[in-house]
Structures are given as structure tokens and as C-alpha cells.
């Protein structure tokens, strides 16, 4: 069962690996990222960042979409991580098993504006998240103890 789908441009790091994994008792982490799926060095870094209690899978977005139905098992408590709103939209378009998206970290860059401490979006991000929001909840927070803020109230 998918417990959390999170957009975080850093993918897997301490905040995600421990705060969110512990909060949901995660035993499967699926990183859906085309670059990570091809980069052995990035894969090594992601493996070092994962909590010992979880199995880590690193797949391309296309392969992750194909594997989402396998996560519909009550024994699995899955965290799915993507690094962009575009990839989040791909997952949501392909699956009925995703109930919400957590936007946790998108760094500031040219053409982006901050909507929270750790989330900066541009017009494409806003469009993607609004499209996702037509189907499921889109919430913004860094860690489980933060107050949940709905994306639609921040833009």
C-alpha cells in the first residue's frame, strides 16, 4: 500500500528517510527518477541514505509507473519519491492507488517563486499541481509534524 508520495528534488535524505519513514512505518522506498536509475554513483548515495528497515528500489519513472500496482499490498508500506511535479503528474495519471501528494522540497531557481520555506514553483509546476489537485489532495510540508497546508491555498 502506498503510504506517501513525495516530491523532493533531493530525493532521499535524512528528513525523508527517517522522519517520514518512521511516521508511516515504511518498509519499501521507491525512488522514481530517470537520472538516478542510470547513475550508479547516485544510486550508491541513495542506498546510504535509506533507513535500515526499508528496501530501496530505484527505477525510471516509466518503470515505476508499471510497478505501482505491485505496491497495492497491505504488507507493503511504501514511500514513493519523485523530484518534480512533472513526474508526480505522470504517476497520478497512471495510478488510482495514489491518494495524495506531499510537496516537501523544490529548490529556488530562476523563474520560481517561494510558496513555503522549502518549496519554490514556476508556472509549469503550478499547472502540474493544479491538474493533480483535480484528482487528489496536494499538500505542502517538510516533515510530518509540520502543519499540513493545501497547495491550492498557497498559490
From TrEMBL:
Source organism per UniProt: Oceanobacillus aidingensis
Superkingdom of origin: Bacteria
Pfam families named among the record's database cross-references: PTSIIB_sorb
Lineage, top ranks: Bacteria, Bacillati, Bacillota, Bacilli, Bacillales
Signal peptide limits: none
InterPro entries assigned: PTS_IIB_sorbose-sp, PTS_IIB_sorbose-sp_sf
Name of the molecule in the record: PTS sugar transporter subunit IIB
Primary site of residence: cytoplasm
Keywords: Cytoplasm, Kinase, Phosphotransferase system, Sugar transport, Transferase, Transport
Limits of the PTS EIIB type-4 domain: 1-155
Gene3D superfamilies listed in its UniProt record: Phosphotransferase system, sorbose subfamily IIB component
Keyword Kinase attributed: yes
Record's subcellular location: Cytoplasm
EC code: 2.7.1.-
GO molecular function, one term: transferase activity
Enzyme class at the top of the EC tree: transferase
Amino acid at each position: 500500500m502506498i503510504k506517501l508520495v513525495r516530491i523532493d528534488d533531493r530525493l532521499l535524505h535524512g528528513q525523508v528517510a527517517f522522519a517520514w519513514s518512521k511516521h508511516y512505518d515504511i518498509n519499501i522506498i521507491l525512488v522514481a527518477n530517470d537520472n538516478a536509475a542510470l547513475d550508479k554513483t547516485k544510486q550508491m548515495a541513495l542506498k546510504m541514505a535509506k533507513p535500515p528497515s526499508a528496501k530501496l528500489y530505484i527505477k525510471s519513472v516509466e518503470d515505476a509507473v508499471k510497478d505501482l500496482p505491485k505496491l497495492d499490498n497491505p504488507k507493503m508500506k511504501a514511500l514513493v519519491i519523485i523530484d518534480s511535479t512533472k513526474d508526480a503528474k505522470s504517476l497520478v495519471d497512471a495510478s488510482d492507488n495514489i491518494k495524495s501528494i506531499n510537496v516537501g522540497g523544490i529548490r529556488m531557481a530562476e523563474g520560481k517563486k517561494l510558496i513555503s520555506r522549502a518549496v519554490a514553483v514556476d508556472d509549469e509546476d503550478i499547472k502540474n499541481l493544479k491538474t493533480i489537485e483535480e484528482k487528489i489532495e496536494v499538500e505542502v510540508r517538510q516533515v510530518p509534524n509540520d502543519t499540513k497546508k493545501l497547495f491550492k491555498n498557497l498559490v
